[in-house]
Amino acid sequence: MKRQIRAAVGTGLFAAAVSAVILTGCGKEAEDGKVKIEVVQYKQEAVKVFEELEKKFNETHDDIELVIDSPNDAMTILKTRFIREDYPDIIGIGGDINYSNFLDSEMLMDISDYEGLGSIKEAYLQTAKDLEFVPTEGNYAVPYMANAAGILYNKEIFEEHGWTIPTTWDELTALCEKMQSEGVQPFYFGFKDVWTCLAPWNAIAVDLAPSDVCAQVNRGNTTFAENYREVAEKEKALLEYAQDDPFAYGYNDACTAFANGEAAMFAIGSYAVPQIKSVNPDIAIDSFVFPASNDPERNVLNSGNDLQFSVMESCENKEAAYEVLDFFLEDENVQMYIDDQNAVPCKQGEFELPSMLNGMTSYIEEGKLVDYQDHHYPSEMSVDAMIQTFLLDEDENAVDTFLKRFDTEWVRYNRDLIQKVQEYEEEQGER
After folding, report:
1. What is the pTM of this model?
2. 90 - beta bridge partners?
3. What is the pLDDT of residues 175-223, one digit of tens each?
4. What confidence category does residue 261 fall into, taking pLDDT thresholds of 50, 70 and 90?
5. What domains are there in the chain, each with its CATH number?
């Protein structure tokens, strides 16, 4: 079915002159009679595993040729291709604002009839649904892999000192003070790289702020100042337990320092483990969820869809695209990806998870998880840089200044979206 594409909200995805782009066909039959399916995926760090998947598929399928592209800066390349009406059949992207914009632009196929969706954990299916700007009928993504964020810790250091895992904020700060008294550095941060400021922010926010706070702000029901104060205060409080001048060191520095035992804990996601182990393959790492409140029952895992697949509306051979998705979801291929990337599978089943996720396994199994807050932030807003500026601000009114700016910038970068959401609410009689 051909559909017109509407300009995506606030992305600059399409030039102003492109007001009615008609999708061209993909999934066409090649000269050798095979159906060619092109997948473009954004995870550069997973190039090798996707090369192996491509090879394995083509060796076992006579009727379909699978081509997987893993370009540098894949999102920019995809957006450029979309402007040129040059569409792949399947895209593999993160569950974030980019997916929201592509869906809003009516570029993705409704795959509600895809049987493989029945094998995906409900929590991750819901995570994808929650990314919709306004409720949309149908399903448009197959969640494949997730990651998890909280606190990585050095098991040897903990065992040497007899420390137990904290389950409340007060226990965490008391542990940090105990570490300092015993000459151990609690945390190492790489805040010179602004994006790392989001790691503790997200992990704290899932405990303290509503999971749908961005949607509620868009509806005009609340403000970030009403919901993010404690989040901001507690991330700033962590600076008391950081190394000297955490803004002078970047992500690579922090990974190296943690790998070398220079800190007992690292507030980061599971995605950092491969780099840490590249420095020290023998380091014993485990993890625990960030205890941001003083109620252990409120503790949830910060986990989102790190990689999900969507079929483009332009794909001419849905059945072949579905066969590719079936292949990706075969248990042995899921496990191969897990082993390569220390990932969390979105598929139900008995998979062997990385040992560093032992402390988070129960949350994964129970589906007790909440998506990253920044998956709902527009990239143009540069929230990571805003957080860094706030953390550097030593003024007594720093929190108030930050929260006011957050609300102001949100309206600035989401004005059209806010209008769209509120118009929808009015149409539904909800305002």
Report:
1. 0.88
2. 39, 311
3. 999 999 999 999 999 999 999 999 999 999 999 999 999 999 999 999 9
4. very high
5. 4-146+305-353 (3.40.190.10)
